[in-house]
Amino acid sequence: MKDPICGMEVGKDSKFKSNYKGKDYYFCSASCKQSFDKSPEKHVKG
Ligand SMILES: [Zn+2]
Q1: 41 CA to middle of ligand 1, Å?
Q2: How many domains would you assign to the chain?
């Protein structure tokens, strides 16, 4: 999986995770997760 914020490879064991529209997204850090949670529609295509 790729961190949608910074593009880094992250595993499904990452503790930074969000669910948006029924899909799970994983992040490398708390700050990437925060950016995503603020405006997920900016970072997700479709
Ligand atoms: Zn990241």
Answers
A1: 17
A2: 1
